[in-house]
Amino acid sequence: MNGIFWVLRTGAPSRDMPARYGPYTTAYNRFNRWRKARIWDRLMAAVTKGHDGKVQMIDSSIVRVHQHASGVKKRVEIVVWGEAAEGSRPKSMRASTAKAGRSRS
Q1: Which of 12, 48, 64, 96 could lock 16 by a disulfide, CB 3.0 to 4.6 Å apart?
Q2: Quick check: is 15 in a domain?
Q3: pLDDT for position 83
């Protein structure tokens, strides 16, 4: 099992598994047999049931921090733009475009 967990944790190919876990083909074949027998599904169901369904898994590949983001306290600045006066057109649209886009019906 340690060999299977090592491959799953590192994301490395099975053939790169350290020799201390035994032949990589054994771990690979065991993982596939257990997957087909739905043993992993039953294992996760038992873990979830044991913790009242409060199990969260985080994939470390999505938890990344930019190298410059660590250790610096960020300041959040909220910029509020002034509200447009009633009846005024949006400033980003030319007047001729606004008239051409109107429906005549």
Answers
A1: 12
A2: yes
A3: 55
89 Cβ contact partners less than 8 Å away, ≥ 6 residues apart = 95, 98
Total tally of structural domains belonging to the chain: 1
CA dihedral 80, 82, 88, 91 (to 10 degrees): -60
Q: Structure tokens of 55?
A: 């199990």
Asked whether 4 and 26 are in contact (CB, 8 A), the reply is: no
Residue keyed to tokens 């979830």: 48
Contact status, residue 21 vs residue 3, Cβ threshold 8 Å: yes
**In-domain check, residue 92:** no
Q: Which residue has the higher pLDDT, 68 or 15?
A: 15
C-beta of residue 7 within 8 angstroms of C-beta of residue 14 = yes
